[in-house]
Amino acid sequence: MASAALSSVLSTQHHMNDWPTTFEEARALQEQLRSQVITFDDIGDVRTVAGVDAGYEPDPDAGAGSNRVLARAAIVVLEYPSLRTLDYTIARRPTTFPYVPGFLSFREAPAVVAAIEQLRMRPDLLICDGQGIAHPRRFGIACHLGLLTGIPAIGCAKSLLVGRHAPVPDERGASVPLLYRGEQVGAVLRTRPGTKPVFISVGHRISLATAIEYVMSCTTRYRLPETTRAADGLASHGRVPTIIGEEQQRLL
Fold first, then answer.
1. Which listed site, 38, 42, 110, 210, has its alpha carbon 20 to 30 Å from 6?
2. How far apart are CA 219 and CA 172, in angstroms?
3. How far apart are CA 77 and CA 149, in angstroms?
4. Mean pLDDT across 196-205
């Protein structure tokens, strides 16, 4: 059940009329909400895990010469632990915020939340292609989506946003702490030998140790977890997942 704090966030921030439009407003909201992030395990049985990613496309309603784009958010829900595809969807929303590191959620979250609302099933866990608390204000997109939806969330980023770390041993499952301003904000995780590591941090309602376990259990032969690969394929490359039992692909 959503808490009173979460209900307040949903009622005042999810609606686009109230969505921040300036850096000052966005920064203030991150500072306000970061204290609501739960960094311990508050998660039940996980039977479904969803990958979250977003791409961009031209806005067909924009005027000639306009650079305005739509955020195209994709969610792919996998059965856990089999990683069999169960559901997927895409939602498109106009972007009202520029692309600036540290403020990604204000550009992509409206489309992502809309996509989650379109799913036929509510996932038990989100693995986001972005940061959680490994963020200048401890409130990356995985935190924001976790609070907006109430779903436990993990940040699984391909690149470093903040912090420093020691070299990561070149073996599957090896990790080292990610440190920022004297605190551990995440872990740098080697999911596959011979490839670059990924950057794991808490999004909401999960501990770092548990987040690492879920990312590793969702990672098979590739560097990225299957959740991220499926969502990225749908959001950015148009690869529609196959659901066993469905005779034809759904229109997106």
1. 210
2. 10
3. 15
4. 98
Domain 4-237: which CATH class?
alpha beta
Give ∠ CA 228-234-240 in degrees, rounded to 5.
120
pLDDT in tens, 212-252: 999 999 999 999 999 999 999 998 888 888 887 665 555 55
pLDDT exceeds cutoff 50 at 14: no
pLDDT in tens, 134-176: 999 999 999 999 999 999 999 999 999 999 999 999 999 999 9
Which residues, 6+ apart, have CB-to-CB distance to 142 below 8 Å? 126, 128, 130, 131, 132, 153, 154, 155, 201, 202, 203, 204
Which residues are CB-contacts of 82 (< 8 A; sequence separation ≥ 6)? none
Residue 111's φ and ψ, nearest 5 degrees, are -70, -40
Whole-number Å distance between alpha carbons of 226 and 207: 21
Using the predicted structure, report yes or no on whether residue 46 has a pLDDT greater than 50: yes
Antiparallel, parallel or unpaired: β 125-128 and 153-157: parallel
* All structural domains of the chain with their residue ranges: 4-237
